[in-house]
Amino acid sequence: MNGQPRNIQVVAFCCRFCAYSAADLAGGARLEYPASVKIVEMPCTGRANVLEVLHAFEKGADGVAVAGCLPGTCHFIKGNDHAAQRMDHVTELLKKIGLEEQRARMINISAAMGEQFTTEMTAFVESVKHLGPSPLHAGANSSRHHETPDPELSHDCG
Ligand code: FES
Fold first, then answer.
1. Whose CA is nearest to atom 4 of ligand 1?
2. pLDDT tens across 123-141, in order?
3. How do 37-42 and 10-15 pair as beta strands?
4. For residue 153, what pLDDT is reported?
5. pLDDT, tens digit, 9 for 90 and up, residues 95-118
6. Ligand 1 pocket check: which of 69, 86, 106, 109 to mutate, most ligand atoms within 8 Å of Cβ?
7. Pairing of strands 104-108, 63-68
8. Among 37, 40, 77, 110, fewest CB within 10 Å belongs to which?
9. pLDDT band at 7; cut points 50, 70, 90
């Protein structure tokens, strides 16, 4: 329908040892989080590089979260630290191209924090909704409204 904003899309790159397991736990407990969150499983958030995050924005994401293990608990020692540094770089790049830095967020969570996962994702989606659709896709409202999300946004990187 013309004139209506398209649905917000959020991509969450989730470490399989923590955030992805927390999402599983939430699902098992029937805890809900917004359906607009497309989870991409990763072996570690250390694998999430800047280009991959920017590519998600380019392909239609309005917000991108990278969700890794709690500080000091990464199975690859420093993967979540590297991811946090890269997300700082992403937010700087977003500002330079005129996007709000709040569209990118690093989240640290353990596998046992299913409820926290839903809380974090819901808060992030609400924050992105408040910003509105990404201006990168402002002209795509009418043509994209009924499309399913780009399959590349929810591929399995593991
Ligand atoms: Fe989870 Fe590295 S193994 S962030």
1. 68
2. 999 999 999 999 988 655 4
3. parallel
4. 45
5. 999 999 999 999 999 999 999 999
6. 69
7. parallel
8. 77
9. confident
Taking the C-alpha atoms of residue 50 and residue 9, their distance in angstroms, rounded to an integer, is: 19
User: C-alpha distances in angstroms, 21 versus 18, 50, 139?
Assistant: 5, 23, 36
What is the whole-number distance in angstroms between the Cα of residue 52 and the centre of ligand 1?
A: 17
